[in-house]
Amino acid sequence: MPRVSQDHLDARRRQILDGSRVCFARYGYEGATVRRLEEATGLSRGAIFHHFRDKESLFLALAEDDAVRMADVVAEQGLVQVMRDLLSNRSEHPADWLGTRLEVSRRLRTDPEFRARWAERSHQLTAATRRRLLRQRDAGILRDDVDVDVLTAYLELVLEGLVSHLAMGLPGDDLGPVLDLVEESVRRHRARAAGGTR
């Protein structure tokens, strides 16, 4: 039997993740049946579960993949840019990481076993946010009157609030100025640092 190349295995894994992302976003975790996963990926259940032990492992891999992608955006442009991307990529059936993020948030609230497994994987975004804030502080851009860990928690809380807002089906078209305010709130203000008025 011919040996399958690593490139082929990687491409197949990517095909499964991309198709599954659409399926989980459209139907949620419970509604993403094996049949629907087969349709979304164009592959058989045997091919899907050759790469992933079970549906939860597939979902966790997808959520982790999206967390890594978000961490890359954070490293280059910050967590507020992730939020802006979240708003600009909305659609009736989101096929990007919004759907995964919504499902992760729901399962964290309702599934203790998932919460324990996700805790092992969820550090990428926090670490990327903290590293970027430290770089900004060293460059004199970040406000220095609030601890970086507090600012990290603040931005993550805003992200979770935005995800909840969108999960309720509320409009996001007018939230650009809100994100401008969030971004401005973590920046250092020279006048304030020099003793100016608030």
From TrEMBL:
Q: Report which superkingdom the organism of origin falls in.
A: Bacteria
The family database entries (InterPro entries) matched by this protein are listed as: DNA-bd_HTH_TetR-type_CS (IPR023772), Homeodomain-like_sf (IPR009057), HTH_TetR (IPR001647), Tet_transcr_reg_TetR-rel_C_sf (IPR036271)
Chain residues forming the annotated DNA-binding region? 33-52
Q: Which residues form the HTH tetR-type domain?
A: 10-70
Q: Name one GO molecular function term.
A: DNA binding
UniProt xrefs under Gene3D superfamilies: Tetracycline Repressor, domain 2
Q: Do you know which Pfam families this protein is assigned to?
A: TetR_N
Q: Which residues form a coiled coil?
A: none
Keyword terms: DNA-binding, Transcription, Transcription regulation
Return the protein name.
Answer: TetR family transcriptional regulator
